[in-house]
Every structure is written in structure tokens, then in C-alpha cells.
Amino acid sequence: MNLQGTVHPDFAPVARALSRQLRRGPRGGAAVCVYHHGEKVVDIWGGVKDAAGTPWQADTMSVSFSTTKGVTATAMHLLVDRGLVDYDDPVAKFWPEFGREGKEHITIRHLLCHQAGLYRICDLIDDASRMLDWQHMTDALARAKPAIPPGSASAYHGLTYGWLVGEVIQRITGRPFAEVIQREIAQPLELDGLYVGTPSEPAARAAALLVPDSGRRRMAGLEVQLRRAQRVFSVLRLPVDLRRIADALMPPNIEKFEW
User: Fold this and answer.
1) Is 66 annotated as catalytic?
2) pLDDT at 215
3) Which CATH superfamily is domain 67-199 in?
4) Secondary structure class of 94 (helix, strand, coil)
5) Higher pLDDT pick, 36 / 235
6) At 210, is the secondary structure helix, strand, or coil?
7) Measured between alpha carbons, how far is 239 from 55 in angstroms, rounded to an integer?
8) Are strands 29-36 and 4-7 parallel, antiparallel or unpaired?
């Protein structure tokens, strides 16, 4: 796979690894940029950005999924650093509607540490398309009952983390979450391409998420496979509950969702 860009000779293995990866997978593209001691030593890209075969460019953006959790947590840390909130403040102090169904004592720390017990997205919504509606998701989370006692354990909030922490940030700042990310993180760091909710102009250079039909079929059957495997685990008396993976990561009709 031919790559564009530059790479320092000492980091040539990075370019070879990206080239191999692009040859292995289904049709698509990717980019890698590495700084070492303040020097840009790798800035390479290759492949295509959509089903039409449009070449990946130096400024092509892509979906980053769960790395947004780190960005979201950073925004909350900034507010703590400014004295606007404390990690042990109850969420309901800023989001009163949240303080019910056993959530009255859930703290900011619980949210950041995945200890709120609100990971079961399959119980929150009837269709994956609901994830596009911020208000619907935060209302659903405010009504929800924790699946485990808050603070009793960490359970990965794979899809709910952003609304939980992001809504508190909105309540504290009085500004939309996307605006907070731009003004407090992206712009001060001069980051080109960091958005939560991308405006139409920069969105035009975003790569499409190409999910082959085979991948969608696997997604559709994953919940059934996990539940079958759980029956085996139960017979063997292994202390693992695989069904929680589906509860946290497989909202209804996720295989039909257009990212």
C-alpha cells in the first residue's frame, strides 16, 4: 500500500505497519502522526475515505469513538481545577433531575471512574438512532435506575459516559458541550479536527465509516452469541457475565445504524 507524507528513518517500522494494516483489512484508509520530544517524526496516510474510492488526504478526519472519553474527562478536570466543581460533589447538585431511582448520592468521581452503574444502554433506548438526540439520552439517564449499587464496582460505560459527564459539564458552564470542547480544549491547543458534533464545513473532509455487510451481520448476531456463551460459563460456574457486554454496547438495531 502506497503511503503519502513523511517519516523519519528511525520510525520507518511505523510506516510499514500502517501499510500492512491497510492491505489486510477491507477497503478503507487511515493516518498516523507521531511526535517524539516535540518533533514530528511520523505524518503519513493512505487508502481511501469512502466507498467511492476518494483518496485519503492529509486533513481527512475520522471517527475516534472511545478516545472522546479522555477529552470529556479532561474538560471536567478543567472545571475542577477552576474550583467550579469537586470530584465528590453529587451529580444531582448540578443536574437535579438525575437525583432519583437510587442516584441521589452518585458523585462526579463515580461518573469519571465508570462506577455509576448506568452502563445498560439496552434498557435506556428502543433504537440506536436515539443516540443522535442528546436531550432524549440525558432524560433517559435521569430516569434510569443503576444496574449495580453506585460506587460498588467499575463497569465500563461504553456508550453512556459522554452524556453523563457531558451533561454535568453543560449544567455547570451553561454552554453546549460541543462548544466547551472547542473553546477549552481544541482551540487553545490548535487542534484541527477535534469535534464533538462536527459542523458541516469540516464534516465534508471526514472519512465515512465503511462497515461491510458481513460486519453488520456479525453485529446483529453478537448478542445471541454472547448469551449462548454465557450458558456455557454458567454450567462451568465461571464468575463472568458476558451478557453485560451486550447490555452496555449493543443497543437495539445497532447493526442498522448509519454512523
Assistant:
1) yes
2) 63
3) DD-peptidase/beta-lactamase superfamily (3.40.710.10)
4) coil
5) 36
6) coil
7) 48
8) unpaired
More confident residue, 114 or 248: 114
Enumerate residues 6+ apart whose C-beta is below 8 A from 31.
5, 44, 45, 46, 56, 58, 60, 62
- Spans of all domains in the chain: 4-47, 67-199, 213-256
Q: What band does 164 get if pLDDT is binned at 50, 70 and 90?
A: very high
Phi, psi (deg, nearest 5) at residue 167 = -70, -40
The residue ranges of DSSP E strands in 48-135, in sequence order, are: none
Active-site entry in 19, 62, 64, 66 = 66
Residue range 10-54, pLDDT digits in tens: 999 999 999 999 998 678 999 999 999 999 999 999 999 999 999
Instruction: Look at the chain and count its residues.
Output: 259
Q: How crowded is the C-beta side of 139, counted as CA atoms within 13 Å? A: 7
Residues 210, 27: Cα–Cα separation, whole Å: 8
